Amino acid sequence: MELPIAQRLQRIPPYPFREIARIKRELQAQGIQPTDFGIGDPDMPTPKFVIEALYKAAQDPATHPYDETGFGIPEYLTAIAEFGRRRYGLDLQVEGEIQSCLGSKEALVHILWAYIDPSDVVLVPDPAYSVYKVQAAWAGGAAFPMPLDPQNGFLPDLESIPPAVAKAAKVLFLNYPNNPTGGVATLEFYREVLEFAQQHNLLIVQDAAYNEVAFDGFAPPSLLQVEGAREYAIEMHSFSKTFNMTGWRVAWAWGGAAHVSALSKVKANVDSGTFMAIQRAGAVALGHYEDFAPTMRAEYQARRDALVEGLNSLGWNLQKPRATFYVWAPVPPGYETSAEFAAALLDQCHVLVIPGTAYGENGEGWFRMSLTLKDPDKLGAIQGAIERIGEKLPNLWG
Ligand SMILES: Cc1ncc(COP(=O)(O)O)c(C=O)c1O
């Protein structure tokens, strides 16, 4: 007899990327290799100096047991605090205001366990990384969508949140630079969100996974740069996209000591910290941030330019995103849904994109293309995809 899985798991749709991977496998079985603009996972290797640091650290038996600090080893936390000072001018307490995490996804999940009671409202952007909404439900809360519209620079309109909802809200998620829209936030916007949080006594969780992937000299700010933010905020940062380390599962959260300690308490009951050799390698990575990041940014910037200019040559009218490795584009007229357009691109042009609805209802009418590509010749693959779209689907924009 089949054992029934929990309602919690039954209620959520399949993880969107799993579904995309399934479709891709089907195509591959027919001998078709689409140009895959789907999953946002860096295609470049982790830099050598990080791998060497891990190799060295892993040989030291002192790194092999559990990390009993709970927050992270001093060497790691100090490197993060120093990075915070250099990059953002922040003055963070090494003990108490920083928490080592197993990837920022883990931190985004567990912060909800710390703050959400049954029926508490979680304000979630739409479109967004799927984790916020799913995890709000798993924590027992109710997600309330905050639409991100191009007219408002893909920022939520806080004034449109009904007062009763704002009153019931305990957590507000932000994600800037934004996946999937590529939208960015200013310090002024962060100030407004802080005022909102003060007014309604809620926690801002800012997902800064893409803060270091920015172009044209733009340096996205940290929410913690806003005076007084720590009392109401925690911000998640990750090595994944900055240093091509998605598989390493290494990240950190920084913010007010009360929030960091609440997250830490959850983690103490769930995991037993990050492998200390990985923490040492993370410290080395941050020490090289200023040398490494410009190369990473230049690579994505060249791809962004090729893709956006290519799409615009076919009739789109896109602005180049200032950060993230995503291009968020509207579905051309004549297609009713983003899923229909994505299917046409895949079937006829062998170009894999993600329909906007994978990120929420408000993603309808849009699709996302990631600049991370498995093809050896990245610019050639982008060019080829643009040519095939132009050839197979001419006059998309009339
Ligand atoms: C918006 C956003 N936040 C967080 C993550 C998770 O990153 P990490 O590898 O640090 O868990 C991702 C991964 O794609 C993401 O897109």
Describe the model.
This protein has 398 residues and is of the alpha/beta class. It folds into two domains: 7-45 and 291-392, Aspartate Aminotransferase, domain 1 (Alpha-Beta Complex), CATH 3.90.1150.10; 48-290, Type I PLP-dependent aspartate aminotransferase-like (Major domain) (Aspartate Aminotransferase, domain 2, 3-Layer(aba) Sandwich), CATH 3.40.640.10. Helix content is 40%, strand content 14%. The protein is built from 13 helices and twelve strands. It has helices spanning 7-11, 16-29, 48-58, 74-88, 104-115, 131-138, 163-168, 187-200, 257-268, 276-287, 289-313, 338-349, 378-392; strands at 35-36, 98-101, 121-126, 142-147, 169-174, 203-207, 233-238, 251-255, 326-330, 351-352, 354-355, 366-370. The chain has a seven-stranded mixed beta sheet with strand order 2-8-7-6-5-3-4, sandwiched between helices. It is globular. 46% of the residues are buried. The model has no long low-confidence stretch (mean pLDDT 95). It binds pyridoxal-5'-phosphate. The site of pyridoxal-5'-phosphate has 13 residues, from helix 5.
